[in-house]
From TrEMBL, chain A:
Entry's Gene Ontology BP terms: phosphate ion transmembrane transport
UniProt xrefs under Gene3D superfamilies: Periplasmic binding protein-like II
Gene behind this protein: pstS
Signal peptide: 1-24
Family to which this protein belongs: Belongs to the PstS family.
Protein name: Phosphate-binding protein
Binding site for phosphate: 66-68, 95, 113, 201-203
GO CC terms, sorted: ATP-binding cassette (ABC) transporter complex
GO molecular-function term, one example from the UniProt record: phosphate ion binding
NCBIfam families according to UniProt: 3a0107s03
Keyword Signal appears in the UniProt entry: yes
UniProtKB/TrEMBL annotation, chain B:
Cellular component annotations (GO), alphabetically ordered: plasma membrane
Gene behind this protein: pstC
Organism: Streptomyces misionensis
Listed InterPro entries: MetI-like, MetI-like_sf, Phosphate_PstC, Phosphate_Transport_Permease
Summary of the function given for this chain in its UniProt record: Part of the binding-protein-dependent transport system for phosphate; probably responsible for the translocation of the substrate across the membrane.
Upper taxonomic lineage: Bacteria, Bacillati, Actinomycetota, Actinomycetes, Kitasatosporales
Domain ABC transmembrane type-1: residue ranges: 94-319
Similarity comment: family membership: Belongs to the binding-protein-dependent transport system permease family. CysTW subfamily.
Compartments in which it is found: Cell membrane
Official protein name in the record: Phosphate transport system permease protein
Family annotation (NCBIfam families): phosphate_pstC (TIGR02138)
Membrane topology according to the record: Multi-pass membrane protein
Chief site of localization: membrane
Amino acid sequence: MKLQRKNRLRALTLGAVAVSGALALTACGSDDNGGGSKASGNPSSAANASSIKCDGAKGQLLSDGSSAQKNAIDAWVKNFSQACGVQINYKAGGSGAGVTSFTQGQIPWAGSDSALKPEEVAASKKVCSGGQGIDLPMVGGPIAIGYNLNGVDNLVLDAPTLAKIFDGKITNWNDQAIKKLNPSAKLPDLKIQAFHRSDDSGTTDNFTKYLIATTPDNWKYSGGKTWQAKGGQSAAQSSGVAQQVKQTNGAIGYFELSYVGDGIKPVSIDTGAAQPVAPSTDSATKAIADAKVVGTGSDLSLKLNYNTKADGAYPITLVTYEIACDKGNKADTLPTVKSFLNYMASEDGQKLLSGIDYAPMPDAIISKVRSTIATLS
Amino acid sequence: MDTTKTTDAPPPTSQPPANVQKRVNRGATRPGDRVFLGLSRGSGILLLVIMAAIAVFLTYRASLAISKDHGNFLTTFEWNTNLVPPSFGIAVLAFGTVVSSVIAMVLAVPVAVAIALFLTHYAPRRMSGPVAYVIDLLAAVPSIVYGLWGALILVPHLNGLFGWLDEYLGWTGIFSWQGGAPRSMLTVGILLAIMILPIITNVSREVFRQVPQMHEEAALALGATRWEVVRMSVLPFGRSGVISASMLGLGRALGETMAVATVLSPTFDIQTSLLDPGGGTFAQNIASKFGEATQDGRDALIASGLVLFVITLLVNGAARAIIARRKEYSGANA
């Protein structure tokens, strides 16, 4: 509360000096008032508001990048802009578009579902004077394998079987390999209809990365955002794939966890752990905890351990990174970016994720992220 | 004002013929005329410049993409622009575009001609107005709405038709069905047929309406039945009009994007059966790949767009050639 009042005072003095900024600042002031009055009525939002440190955040922030983390960013933006009166516009135009805009200096921070490639780091050095772009893992997302099969409820599959199904090598639900993993299930004599994404997607990339890492003998493709296996059926966007799985008995597809339910059941993965693991925000966080930080310097890019056998760890998980300069951020946007990243990495920010089907970062990683954000300049 | 003054003044003796000649050629020119001339000429030139600029841009970007293509641009069954080097080819797209449009034409043209004939020659006047209006409304529905309707309503209801086709015509190979979701070339063709129906109907109706009354009356006087009138005077007169109407429809079918992208299950291989899901069209591929495309990816998509452009040009050229040849026989436009 004390902090907030101080901020408002600062804002008011600034407002008196800078006439040109009058509009934005009055908006900021009134938002603060709104937050304050709400806080008195609702204890939970009071907790939210007090944990957000605005620290000189002001004006407008533009960003672009991965659509996989869009819902998480939207939720954070809503709380943050309420507390600090900052307008943040995250376009979710795709990871590629986000990274390109960042390395061209159009946006101060970008979101991406894969870490910066060496040539992208090189390009970022032009924008970050004296520094370079770094990856901060912030949001985890379990990729669910969803299926629709009347009368079968807890389907268990392992990596080789998944690879064979999506490569068209296993074509019937009563195949021996599936029976072996599900001894008690009544598997029907029905054709398997495997759906993949028809558009290029980070979800495809991460799912096939998992297959390549765990069962290279059964998945002989090079991977990437484009689906490479022949045959099967496809649909545009995760929502399209989910729609097809929902209306087709005998269908299986992959998409974000939020599409599970409503006629689509998740496949539990037999990872070699004691029990098969179902996708959930918890089990994804456990898998990310098994990842190694491979970034050098202040870069925190992760190498996920897709072969993890840890109990309750769901290996088909993607991590989205926030990308900013370690040194040489633009002076006018730095405080805003820093305080917004701080809020994302804060305990409250991460806690928000599991409520909207994202996986929070494990403690060991998020504490590194926090200390890295503190050094941004 | 100036011009009237100079003409009012008595000209020197040697000048008059030249002066008169000039005025006859150009007519009176007042400021309004000059402004109008400038505007219309400018618009014409601007259009050409814009077209040339687009053509140069497209060809340039396409040539960049094709020079980087590791596969064969014409025969590769793959579209992966994220590989290093990229590998992509248009074979599947060209096949799918042509096949889906042909299906749409086969389904739509007979129905459209029948509707047009009904409206102009059979329906009571009171009824033909509202029916024509409803058909116009079909043309006003945005294509994405057709796509959503197709994906959510049409596709689930096609299982029965596909099963029937497979049972009785499966032996042909074209109509065999392995039981995948009915999101195939035939589905796309059916949806496209519905979408191009209004334009073909409307143009055909206008053409049939212009059949000279004398032709029809002459046929009637010879004792022809109504069907014979249609066959002997209306159809020959309207043939070239129906062909151009069909070409307008074909143009829309070839370029249709969102409806196809929503309904089809695109894969990069060619299915011998029209009922098995798979394949793709140019416009659908551009729509679904553009969002996440890198620079190379966009160039490759532009290259595929150029091919679609060429195909459309060829089709239109062929249609014009047909119309030009038919004219002599039908005597319609004489």
